[in-house]
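Task card 7
Instruction: Convert sequence to structure tokens.
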Amino acid sequence: MNQNLVEFTPRPMKISLLTAALQELTPRELRDADPDRAIEDWLAFSRDVGSPYIQLSAALHPSVSDVPAEAMLDPVANHLDLREPFTPERTGRVLAAMQETGVGLSDLGYFDNMLVADDTARQQKYEFMLRVFDAAVLLGTDAVCGFVGRNYDLEMDQNLEMFEAVFVPLLKEAKARGLTFRVEQCPMPGWTPLDRWHNNIAYAPGPWIALHRICEKHGVGDQFRVHYDPSHSVLMGQDTRSMFQYLKDEGYAFLIDGFHVKGQVIDAKGVSAWGYGGQTLERGDWIDGAPSPNPADLGNAWKKQTALCEHELPGTAKHDPLAYLQNRTVDWLDHQLAARELLDIDPAEIYLVVEHEYPPARIQDVDALKPILAGSVAFTKAIDEAAAAMYALQHEVMPAQGIPVQGFGREAYRS
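Output:
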């Protein structure tokens, strides 16, 4: 018997679904009166669409949020209602629903600007994040996903100093609770009507490394990780394989610790009109030479992004090899291969979280949305299983027998 034989053992990732995909699964009047009803309903819905885990969305209640829903491109959801702190009694109810449905938690998500300039608003978000941390501990998950944000009144180097002063203490609170904070890298161009585009300073590998070095100085390097979303890379003209290669080259392949599965489809006409900075003027968010006082007008600031692209729910965009090579949409198969080939991860322990922000399909009708999300979850699972099979075959089984792999494949820095 050939002693060099290696068994074929593909390691697929764990599929999850961000609950903000359907804000009104449980109507507001019901969940305001019965806060944990929304979690129970979402666990059952996730089971029905084939997702074994959820990323449970938390947010400031609309009655106290500093950003009206009308000013958001993708409104957040407070399915984890923390107007009051989570308690052991509430925990027991949610854990019972998890056991009944067979659906677990990948992590909790609270996506907000943690570096906002206003001291009162920032303190409110800080205290709310601590409630999210405490809920994560009670619910038995070990990670929280969110943004770093930016103080728009400061330049980027000044924001690094602010990160050290006000965000590092949050990471120390996470460390005390045994949690990891996974940063999503969306640049959030529409967060402000000002001529600011990178409004989340943790938007790319260069900033991730700079921020991680600050964290290491304060003993919280292990708490700072990245929840990578390829849609934001496409928005900024980047491709996943090259970004992962860069992290590996710089010795930071360990930074990515989870994935949002959301795509982006670039509009070539929009790029021709505005370039990759998006629409810079006459958007409708300024009135008489000043930012409009109307939140609905401020939503037009997102034309910095939407003038040149549109979010994709995985599986809803056409197969387009030319667009893959031009970085105008996500090459999902290579995304999953590159993660295995270049990052320091155990795929079987990584969550692949489907995030739904494709505008025409943002349907608040349960029966209409259910088959759409079921199809996207199935697509994501199938693509990842295909990548897991290719990786196991090409990087484990065949090399053990001295059999060469055919062809060349995509290469970093060559798109």
